[in-house]
Design goal:
Elements: H1 2-13, H2 15-36, E1 49-55, H3 61-73, E2 74-76, H4 83-91, E3 97-101, H5 105-111, E4 118-121, H6 126-148, H7 154-165, H8 178-210, H9 213-221, H10 226-255, H11 263-287, H12 293-311, H13 322-328, H14 332-345, H15 351-385
Parallel strand pairs: 1-2, 1-3
Antiparallel strand pairs: 3-4
Helix pairs in contact: 1-8, 1-10, 2-8, 3-6, 3-7, 6-7, 8-10, 8-11, 8-12, 8-14, 10-11, 11-14, 11-15, 12-14, 14-15
Length: about 375
């Protein structure tokens, strides 16, 4: 096993550079874990906008009802009707919305003519859209009763409107563990960058030495058979790759203890294992193409960092454009991250829900086989040339 021992001696010589990528990844994982710990989503809490309601149409039941309705869903700020004061308050975000009811508004509304409120709001703001929807909801409900119930009294109208608008829907959370699952999916997404960089650096640093023409010729003259040398190199690459993967898995079990022993966690580990095989194949291909150490470092940065950015490791896939994702689909990292996203959201485990997960894993494995085949062709050509 002389070649196998030499393999890890060469790895040890480059251990500092490899360790740097592992430390960066672990720091990211620990920071991510500490930031999201305990951030459980418990329900929906309404945020009330600060508004000013100015009523110039006094003694109007429908306007009073509108003010009461808005008061339940917003914070009404008492402020005098002065344009400069109101504009300053809106500019400094002391208020977010101004409603002015013009004189004669209710009379026009009952007659069916064009009755408009004077609205001033922060342009393109969420609070502005929210308040517009509430006012439209109130007035549209009132319009239905006014148009279809002749001689309806103010008291009846307000009573019907309040009854209709008081209807609410209960929302129940289907899972209290959603945030936790996302946490360890982020961890495994980040591991794609770290594993890619570590494997490319490790495999290339060794193969650069063994691919030197002088050393190849010496090995051909040695008592160790060529098949034995190749088998020991393959064994060394596998041990190194799965050793790096094993460290990633162990750290995930320490950070996400209970979650990693769920079906979601087991599938995530399996997915990372298959991705490690694909990354090892890519590393082996790169090691048979590059010819210098500077090229090795450049390849590690370009392949690992580049594929991570376009595939959803650092930026979520839903934020990336369709063109970027199309390009990313030609890398195993894209399908690996896509599988992680599906796994983290699984709550039921049946053939239908697991099919897209295993499909993505199969695509990643197909990348491994295809790249390995290309590598064998490259090695054969290089052997013929040399």
């Amino acid at each position: 096993m002389q070649v196998f021992k030499v393999f890890f001696k060469l790895i040890k010589r480059n251990f500092g550079e490899i360790l740097l990528y592992l430390i960066i990844f672990l720091i990211l994982a620990v920071v991510l874990s500490s930031v999201n710990t305990g951030s459980q989503y418990s329900g929906f809490n309404q945020t009330k906008s600060r508004i000013v309601f100015i009523n110039n149409d006094e003694n109007s039941a429908i306007v009073d009802g509108l003010e009461d309705y808005l008061a339940k869903n917003a914070v009404i700020v008492d402020m005098k009707d002065d344009s400069r004061t109101l504009q300053d308050a809106l500019f400094y975000r002391d208020i977010e919305y101004i409603v002015k009811v013009p004189m004669g508004f209710s009379e026009k509304f009952y007659k069916g003519s064009d009755a408009k409120l004077e609205i001033t709001k922060i342009p393109d703001s969420i609070s502005g859209v929210y308040m517009d929807n509430m006012i439209d909801k109130y007035l549209n409900t009132a319009r239905i009763y006014v148009n279809n119930m002749k001689n309806i009294s103010d008291e009846e109208l307000i009573s019907y409107i309040q009854k209709d608008l008081s209807q609410t829907a209960n929302v129940n959370l289907s899972s209290a563990n959603t945030v936790k699952e996302k946490d360890f999916s982020y961890y495994y997404n980040y591991s794609a960058y770290s594993l890619s960089a570590i494997l490319i650096l490790g495999v290339c640093s060794v193969m650069l030495v063994f691919n030197k023409l002088d050393l190849k010729r010496r090995n051909l003259c040695s008592p160790v058979k060529g098949r034995s040398i190749n088998l020991q190199l393959i064994l060394g690459n596998l041990v190194f790759a799965f050793g790096a993967w094993f460290i990633v898995v162990i750290v995930s079990m320490l950070l996400y203890k209970k979650d990693m022993f769920t079906l979601n966690g087991i599938l995530m580990i399996l997915n990372s294992f298959i991705f490690t095989i694909a990354t090892l194949s890519i590393s082996f291909l790169i090691s048979n193409i590059i010819k210098s150490r500077p090229a090795m470092s450049a390849a590690a940065n370009v392949v690992a960092l580049g594929s991570s950015f376009i595939s959803g490791v650092f930026v979520p896939q839903y934020l990336l454009s369709a063109k970027v994702l199309t390009i990313a689909s030609f890398t195993p990292t894209y399908w690996y991250v896509k599988a992680n996203i599906i796994i983290s959201s699984l709550s039921q485990f049946n053939a239908q829900s697991l099919k897209p997960v295993f499909t993505n894993m199969l695509i990643v494995f197909a990348f491994a086989v295809a790249v390995l085949a290309i590598t064998l062709v490259v090695m054969k050509q290089r052997k013929t040339v040399s």
